[in-house]
Amino acid sequence: MKKLLVLSILLSLGFTQSLNIQGSTTVLPIAQAAAEAYMEKHPDADIMVRGGGSGTGIAALIDRATDIATSSRPIKTKELKQARERGVNPVGTVIALDGIAVIVHPNNPINDISIADLKKIYTGKITSWNALGGKGNIVVVSRDAASGTFEVFNEKVLGGTKMTEGALMLASNLEVARAVEQTPGAIGYVGLGYLSEKVKVLKVNGVNPSEETVRNGYYPLARALYMYTNGNPAGLTKSFIDFILSGEGQKIVRDNGFVPVK
């Protein structure tokens, strides 16, 4: 009761509550838009949102350097072990669904690709579009190792096989999309929220990435997007996550090109 009274007094004197969010560049547009909307409703809240990759966010949570770690993949067993050794108890909340879209340059005649051929491209066994009905050399574009998108792609497509050393490893979805847009022979992969008319989206195993195919699990590269906290969310952290899971927050998810969980 005393703590609530002190908090009320501090807020009445103009003190703000701060919240730090760090991690996935896939979740970044959702977190940024939700933070802006939340702060409009709650002028006493100060929310800082940064990217850097899912691995970076989870590492920051383990180091107690962030309140929320955004991630486009589940936390790894070794990360969970490391967290618990440091007295941190990561708890994940699914705030949206996503599909990893495979993209090529708009002039590429290919419309569909199999998981098997994706693996051959990303492991260097197929280096020319001629083998798949196109023309020219393939430029392989990937996310870097700190990325949750990379981790999910590695698991679902490569099965842990080493990626070709010739791959261009980039730090964000936006960089991947721009590289593919500007390079006729390129192939890359991004979250649904980073699609535009400047790139061409391929079907994977005959299935288009869409809200319906991601939600029902038909799209083979579907995944969940997470916000991890140290223990169950409380205070401003809980209020913010509850906002994202509300009708207004889930509309923000959809408006940014992702799939609502509700």
Question: Concise description?
Answer:
The chain is α/β, with parallel strands linked by helices and 262 residues long. The chain contains ten helices and eleven strands. It folds into two domains: 2-97 and 223-255, Periplasmic binding protein-like II (D-Maltodextrin-Binding Protein, domain 2); 99-215, D-Maltodextrin-Binding Protein, domain 2 (3-Layer(aba) Sandwich), CATH 3.40.190.
Question: What is the topology?
Answer:
Layout: H1 2-12, E1 17-23, H2 28-41, E2 45-52, H3 54-62, E3 68-71, H4 77-85, E4 90-104, E5 112-113, H5 115-122, E6 139-143, H6 148-158, E7 168-170, H7 173-182, E8 186-191, E9 200-201, E10 203-204, H8 211-215, E11 222-230, H9 235-245, H10 247-255
Parallel strand pairs: 1-2, 1-3, 5-10, 6-7, 6-8
Antiparallel strand pairs: 3-11, 4-8, 4-9, 4-11
Helix pairs in contact: 3-4, 9-10
Give a structural overview.
The protein is α/β, with parallel strands linked by helices and 262 residues long. The chain folds into two domains: 2-97 and 223-255, Periplasmic binding protein-like II (D-Maltodextrin-Binding Protein, domain 2, 3-Layer(aba) Sandwich), CATH 3.40.190.10; 99-215, D-Maltodextrin-Binding Protein, domain 2 (3-Layer(aba) Sandwich), CATH 3.40.190. It is built from ten helices and eleven strands. The protein has helices at residues 2-12, 28-41, 54-62, 77-85, 115-122, 148-158, 173-182, 211-215, 235-245, 247-255; strands spanning 17-23, 45-52, 68-71, 90-104, 112-113, 139-143, 168-170, 186-191, 200-201, 203-204, 222-230. The strands form two sheets. Strands 1, 2, 3, 4, 6, 7, 8, 9 and 11 form a nine-stranded mixed β-sheet that branches. The protein has a two-stranded parallel ribbon with strand order 5-10. Mean pLDDT is 94; it is low at 1-7 and 9-13.
